[in-house]
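Dear colleagues,

As part of the handover before I leave the project, I'm documenting each prediction I ran so the next person doesn't have to rerun anything. This entry is a single chain, and its sequence is reproduced below.
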Amino acid sequence: MKATIWHNPNCGTSRKTLAILESLSRVELTVIEYLKTPPTAEKLAQLYRDAGITPQQGLRLRGTDAAERGLPDADAATVLAAMVADPILIERPLVETDKGVRLCRPQDVVLEIV
């Protein structure tokens, strides 16, 4: 099974999710450090759609200025554009497999799609 994790190595939950994925021998893993290689707005929209959440639900509030910028109440296109311009606004980690996409908070959520 192939899996892609949109990872931030400075995030404990992201590191724990990555460790779970690395421990599974059946997983062929791709790690994307999204702060270095941000996804496009189209890719983010697809990830959130496949996860069954809105871009607003995928917005990182803690440690960002998202609330001050009015992003929690903004439309999806505005939120996605802000995330692409400033990827720290993307809540992490997102994991994509053939079985679906999950925002893995807590990290054990990843087990639903592997």
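The first strand starts at residue 2 and ends at 7. The radius of gyration is 13 Å.

All the best with the project,
I.
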